Amino acid sequence: MHLDFLSLVNYKSFASAEFELDEKINCFVGNNGVGKTNVLDAIYHLAFAKSYFNPITVQNIKHDEDFFVINGNFNKNDHEEKVVVSAKRGHKRVVKRNGKAYEKLSEHIGLIPLVIISPADRDLIIEGSDTRRRFMDSVISLDNQNYLNQLVTYNKLIQQRNALLKYFQANRTFDRDGLEVYDEQLIVLATFIHKTRVDFLESFTPIFKKYYAYISQSEEDVNIYYKSDLNEIAAKEVFEKALQKDMQLQYSSAGTHKDDLYFLLNGHAVKKYGSQGQQKSFLTALKLAQFEFIKSQSGTVPILLLDDIFDKLDENRVSQIINMVNDEQFGQLFISDTHPERTEQVVKEIHQSYKIFKL
Ligand SMILES: Nc1ncnc2c1ncn2[C@@H]1O[C@H](COP(=O)(O)OP(=O)(O)OP(=O)(O)O)[C@@H](O)[C@H]1O
Prior knowledge:
Elements: E1 2-11, E2 14-20, E3 25-29, H1 36-48, E4 67-76, E5 79-88, E6 94-97, E7 100-101, E8 114-117, H2 123-126, H3 129-141, H4 145-171, H5 176-216, E9 222-227, H6 235-249, E10 260-265, E11 268-269, H7 270-273, H8 276-298, E12 303-307, H9 315-326, E13 333-337, H10 340-350, E14 354-358
Parallel strand pairs: 3-13, 3-14, 8-12, 12-13
Antiparallel strand pairs: 1-2, 1-4, 4-5, 5-6, 6-7, 9-10, 10-11
Helix pairs in contact: 3-4, 4-5, 5-8
The structure holds adenosine-5'-triphosphate (ATP).
Adenosine-5'-triphosphate is lined by residues 12-13, 30, 32-38, 59-63, 308, 336, 338.
């Protein structure tokens, strides 16, 4: 799977740009703010119909312009896939595949397997638990539509249960049967979600550890601890035990919607005790494990976007990552960097075809 050609019109900082791309390695180099990340984001946009960095579509339209268009010609299993993503102020965004607009954007997701590794991934470490749940859920959902459906249902039921708790409080009333209608369904769903997440992490964590060990070439011990109210007690008890508190708070304070992942380095929180380079290595290993899952699920080698990968990592770690992506199991690569000489030196060592775009 690779992208042969990319064109942008009014996308973020670009009025108009075209790139004839290399099948293997493409580097975008230039000073801060020249638009390197914007190019990678445009490619991300073609795969996911949204920006990785700015989810508000209109804010991706170049200032003072009315629309943007991103055009990409992909080659997937020797077939051309032409993808166009466009947005106009005041209108819905449109995604076309080979000239035909999708009715539902979700139908497009999966056509272009792609993973991005970027400094913005730090959100996974520093933000709230929902960011980490979303990451875990997106990887599980790749080949488990049933999980995604159950998750959506569970979240809707939690919202309805919260509304009921608010209603009780506002009307100084309580209806045990009314609440049980929700709890009975939530217990079944939470049990399923918890079990699926446990099973997933059992296979995901060793892959993540393998990548971390390779990048760091060290004895640093990393782990992912799955924190859930359901780890120790059954879902039924979880909801029962939390009821008094839920009534006071007027929302559901326990369940799988409160699950979290603890990222550990030598037994301590990577957020508090990891150096910037260790955090970046941790995130890179997480994303490479995601890459491996997407690859096995889709049967296609995903495109890999490495945004600012050299920042904060020492030379050894950078060369470990580059050696790794040189391996046959990786496909087309996009790299952004502020140092043209450094980039050229690193990619030359790979002995693969490459193009460097100076922005
Ligand atoms: N909607 C927009 N319209 C015009 N310019 C925009 C828009 N959104 C972002 N930009 C501009 O794009 C530039 C940022 O580009 P980008 O993040 O790609 O830079 P970069 O080359 O990756 O820089 P760095 O080396 O600092 O990471 C900024 O100057 C920003 O103002």
